[in-house]
Amino acid sequence: FQIGSDSGWKWIKDQSGLDDGHLHYQQSHEGLGFPGYFRGTSSDLNIRKTSADTPDTKLYSITTSVEPAKGNDSGYSGYILGTPKDFTRWFSLVRLWSPWLAPRQGRDKFYLDKDAVLAAFLRHDGAHVVCLAISGVEDVLTVFQHDDDGNVVIHARNDRETEGTSHVVVAIANTFEIANAAVMYHARKIVGGYESATGQVEVETKALMEKNVKAEWLEEWYDGFTYCTWNGLGQKLTVDKINEALESLKNAGIIIENLIIDDNWQSLTEGKTQMERGWTDFDANKEGFPQGLKHAVTDIRKKHPNINHIAVWHAILGYWGGVAEGGNIAKNYKTTTVQKEPGVAEGEMLVVDGSDAQRMYNDFYAFLDDCGITGVKTDAQFFLDMIVDAPDRRSLITEYQDAWTIAHLRHFGSRAISCMSQSPQLLFHSQLPTNKPRLLVRNSDDFFPEVPASHPWHVFCNAHNSLLTQHLNVIPDWDMFQTSHEWASFHGAARCVSGGPIYFTDYPGKHDIKLINQMTARTTRGKTVILRPHNVGKSTNAYAGYEDHSLLKVHTYHGYARTGTAYVGVFNCTQRPLSELIPLSTFAGAEEGKYIIRAFTTSAISKPMSLGEKKALVGVEIDVGGWEILSAHPVHEHTLHRGGAIAVASLGLLGKMTGAAAIESSDVYVDGQGRLRYSVLLKALGVLGFWIGDLAKKWSVDKDMLVLIFGKQIPEGCVSVEGDVLKIDVDKAWKETGQKAGWSNEIEVELFIS
Hints:
Blueprint: H1 12-16, E1 38-39, E2 46-50, E3 58-66, E4 75-84, E5 87-97, E6 100-107, E7 116-123, E8 128-134, E9 140-146, E10 152-158, E11 164-173, H2 176-198, H3 200-211, H4 219-223, E12 226-228, H5 230-233, H6 239-251, E13 258-261, E14 266-268, E15 279-284, H7 292-303, E16 309-315, H8 328-332, E17 335-340, E18 347-352, H9 357-370, E19 375-379, H10 390-412, E20 416-418, H11 424-429, E21 439-442, H12 454-469, E22 474-477, H13 488-498, E23 503-504, H14 513-519, E24 520-522, E25 528-530, E26 538-539, E27 552-558, E28 565-571, E29 578-583, E30 595-599, E31 617-622, E32 627-634, E33 636-639, E34 645-654, E35 663-670, E36 676-682, E37 687-692, H15 695-698, H16 701-704, E38 705-709, E39 712-713, E40 719-722, E41 725-729, H17 730-736, E42 747-753
Parallel strand pairs: 12-13, 12-23, 13-16, 16-19, 19-20, 20-21, 21-22
Antiparallel strand pairs: 1-4, 2-3, 3-11, 4-10, 5-6, 5-7, 7-8, 8-11, 9-10, 14-15, 17-18, 24-25, 26-27, 27-28, 28-32, 29-31, 30-32, 33-34, 34-37, 35-36, 36-42, 37-41, 38-39, 38-42, 40-41
């Protein structure tokens, strides 16, 4: 770069630390077979080229045999997939530890510090090679490892006493997203075929029909603003503490829709640590809930009728220490003792036997249902993969997943949160099939309020994990956070673009009302909803590493193609201020026509731009720990009755981080009288914004415009102008026109310009 014509050229790298870029010249791959992408591939692999469900994609299905289990020992096999050829960067999702996935990136030599589920390579010729290891089929676990030569190694574990089959899928395409989608679509076919053959799909469908749940009925579960007791109230949980917290929220004017009663409500034995405490009974502990769970829930609902759903936490095997010997659970159900791997929860654990897991879960959830509980958060699911002995693994891993799934479908209509469940067998067996409503699944390791370094990593990790979880039948949950925290807005912005739920876990009396209002909106029925975009938020660049000097960009989209809004959340996860130019092409979905880009924190709006234009970009400067949310809105250009041209774009609800997600549908056209009619259907109240080109110069609100709500003209004072933005206070207009909520929450706003 050059400051001016009189100064010399300077290297960006010397000034900012940013590395030089790479140019990739994409070429045709027609004549290139599998050996063109990997060298040194083992001859023991069965490599079959197959058709892909994505365009311009090569797809290879790879299988290999796995040694059978012998006695208590699982069978293991390892094969070399090969050394990736001609790549410049690689990306992988590794098993950070048993419950969680995390991203890894690198250049040149392929190296993994942990077992991986997915590995991707960007080649010099611009091709993306994505490899996926599939687990959960016939008790086989498959992962990727590396060797000293930089080979990708397929490592498999078989818990059955017969020879097993390991499955790997490799796709090659001109974008990461296409290749990534191709391997996930093919994995769904493999897993779906297996689950249909076992009869599990039929059983789950029957359980869902018993509850008569429709997907749209789950919106209040997905989108309701939710309070969780975990960080805010801690582990010494009591019904009094819960009521005090709820009163604190009420006094602050914070209306929640859902409540999660987290760890330590259960009846447990004593122990020095969580891992030493065992589950004794279905009902709550007498110390914290002296009159039982049902009384506590009934009392909460009576005092706080705004709360729609109350969920309780429990571990997949009961509690962190399993089932207590001598407790009512152990007395009423068959139990078995299992050995866990060394580490956080090593040693023996008593659990309900796999043969009795379905009966136990059915009874447990029937009890919770009777208490007024309408959802569950089921944690520590990785314990299933920490079981050491092959006979226990094959009798418990799948059986517990199926028992839990059938129970939450039957009793709660899939209102469940799956937590610590990114073990490969769970990802593919429980979370990939699409025969049931989408499950809320924790997408990364926890929010740690007291660990400063964890906060940027938490958002970075979630954004990259979503590259895989976007293709599961789940809604990724980026975990709870605290609104009164120094990183609160950073986390809040990330949750808004995540496409997932928003839970908060504030200490009583410590709330950031302004931040809460930026993340949520009120409906006509007085409910508090989050404004969740339709698509899952994920990183725009899989290969940019955490240590790289670049901004994390998280993309999502809301609405229909060509008429919806594309969002890019921009986060500085580094230790230095950064500035970047972000082109319109970063906003996937903003593909045809003109767009304006709006910055949330400053309300700055760009000039209209189109893809391919030299200046189709915006600049951002983000400080350490800073963030911005950019939104690209399609510009509609029309000619009115007397030849006047108008350019207009809907901005959604102003003051909300993802305000366009309040729009259920919209329509814009010139009517028979030559007027522009822009109709917007909103799911919540607030201030609706329209950008209108040269608004102040060309148009008069009084003379040229008419605004209606459900056909009624809104009162004066509900419309204002700021620059080129027309602001319609729908909330105020709703109240002043005496509107009442009907059978639907939606509000129709019509803007006429003549």
